[in-house]
Write a structure and sequence with these properties.
This protein is mainly α. It has a domain of 57 residues. It is 45% helix and 7% strand. A two-stranded antiparallel ribbon has the order 1-2. A two-stranded antiparallel sheet has the order 3-4. β3 and β4 form a beta hairpin. The radius of gyration is 19 Å and the shape is elongated. The two termini are 14 Å apart.
Length: 219
């Protein structure tokens, strides 16, 4: 997970949410109940999450078209069905596991408000909570982000990414041409930027290893 910033509410949602909510309250029509996932809204959500699942950082469209996720489930907070601050996007696997989880005493990590980059750590493809952080640990367990048996495809993709990063690091260390070395370092740092797939894991690896990329900076 990476810390996220909410983009401006789409005009369609801003102008229509009260009407849609009224129609849902009147007859519970499926036609209006799912208006939160209309193309302009989903497009904006993809933009703000860099076209990635908000939780596992898999690229949307890689293995899933992406599901519009209610951070507080509609089953708990019906008024949040069309609330922009309550909407994000997740892969089908993460969305299915989180489902309608909500507990005021045991909250779920929210990358828009929680400093998830300091609450979570990485050991290869595995994610762990920083010591004593029960909210982070609970979220990891619910999403099964470190369960290799139940998230085999996710782990396979993350291991492939780690191999790519390691190979690039080795090449940077061995290459002699200064200009080529600089270009390769830029490629490496780009893999740790927030827009890249599994960037939290990659950033953790890059910053933990000594090399000519040290102190070059990753956002």
């Amino acid at each position: 997970m990476r810390n996220q910033k909410k983009l401006e509410e789409p005009i369609e949602l801003r102008d229509m949410k009260i009407y849609w909510q009224k129609k849902v309250a009147e007859n519970g029509s499926n036609y209006y109940m799912t208006k939160y996932r209309t193309p302009p809204i989903k497009k904006r959500l993809k933009e703000e999450t860099h076209n990635k699942c908000i939780y596992c950082e898999s690229k949307i469209g890689h293995n899933t078209p992406g599901d519009v996720e209610h951070k507080i489930p509609v089953s708990i907070h019906e008024e949040g069905r069309f609330e922009w601050q309550n909407l994000t996007i997740a892969c089908t696997e993460c969305n299915r596991r989180k489902n309608d989880y909500f507990d005021e005493d045991q909250m779920f990590l929210d990358p828009y408000f929680d400093d998830v980059e300091n609450l979570l750590g990485h050991a290869g493809p595995f994610i762990f909570a920083t010591p004593g952080n029960e909210v982070a640990e609970l979220s990891i367990r619910i999403l099964e982000l470190s369960e290799i048996d139940s998230r085999q495809e996710l782990f396979s993709q993350k291991v492939s990414k780690l191999k790519e990063v390691n190979n690039l690091m080795e090449r940077i260390v061995s290459v002699k041409n200064p200009l080529l070395k600089k270009m390769l370092i830029e490629d490496l740092l780009n893999m740790g930027e927030i827009s890249s797939e599994y960037s939290a894991m990659v950033k953790s690896l890059i910053t933990s290893c000594d090399g000519p990329w040290v102190n070059k900076g990753i956002e």
